[in-house]
Each structure stands twice: as structure tokens, then as C-alpha cells.
Amino acid sequence: MGLSVAVGPEGCCRDADPRKITDGTPIRDGITAHYLNNQPEFGGPIPWWNESGAYVAVSGPHLTKEDLIEIAESMSDTATLNAYQE
């Protein structure tokens, strides 16, 4: 796995974890990404943020924090995301 993007409703996932990180890295106007430094065997590092009522996280077991923050900064805030259902 190279890159994973997770999307959910605001307040879910890491955002709901009481141990969440309170400071972060600005990625776009008014948007701050928080960072969890996971080991590669657990999916790798994860920057995550809330945007337009959604929780968004990116991760990659072999990507650096700098790589992932750059990806987060480049993501469109107007993209339409569709959930895959079987």
C-alpha cells in the first residue's frame, strides 16, 4: 500500500479520540492537520484534519511526515468523494 485516504463525518475516527493531538500544522486557509506518528506496520504516519464537516486522513507506511503534509496541502477542498460500497 502506497497512500491511503480516509474520509468520514466530522467527529468520527481520530477526531473522536480523547487522546487526540491539540496542536497541528496549517495546510490551507483555516485548516490545521494533526499528526499521529504510527509505525509502518500499523499503517504509517497519519496527518488528519476536519474540513467542510468531514474528517479526512492520509497515511502511507513508507511516506514521511513531510511527504504526507505536502499531499494534504495539495488536496482540493472542492473534490467530491464517493464512498465505495459492495
Overview of the structural elements:
With 86 residues, the protein is mainly beta. The chain is built from one helix and five strands, in the order E-E-E-E-E-H. It has a five-stranded antiparallel sheet, covered by helices on one side. A hairpin with a 2-residue loop joins strand 4 and strand 5. It starts with a strand and ends in a 12-residue tail after the last helix. The model has no long low-confidence stretch (mean pLDDT 80).
Primary descriptors:
mainly beta; 5-stranded antiparallel sheet
Largest beta-sheet details: 5 strands, antiparallel
Strand content: 25-35%
Point out poorly predicted stretches.
none
* Global mean pLDDT: 80
What value does the Rg take, in angstroms? Answer: 12 Å
Structural class: mainly beta
Helix percent band: 10-25%
Output the number of helix runs. 1
**End-to-end separation:** 21 Å
What general outline do the C-alpha atoms trace? globular
Q: Within the largest sheet, what's the order of strands?
A: 1-5-4-3-2
Element order, helices and strands?
EEEEEH
Multimer state:
single chain
The tally of beta strands, per DSSP, is 5
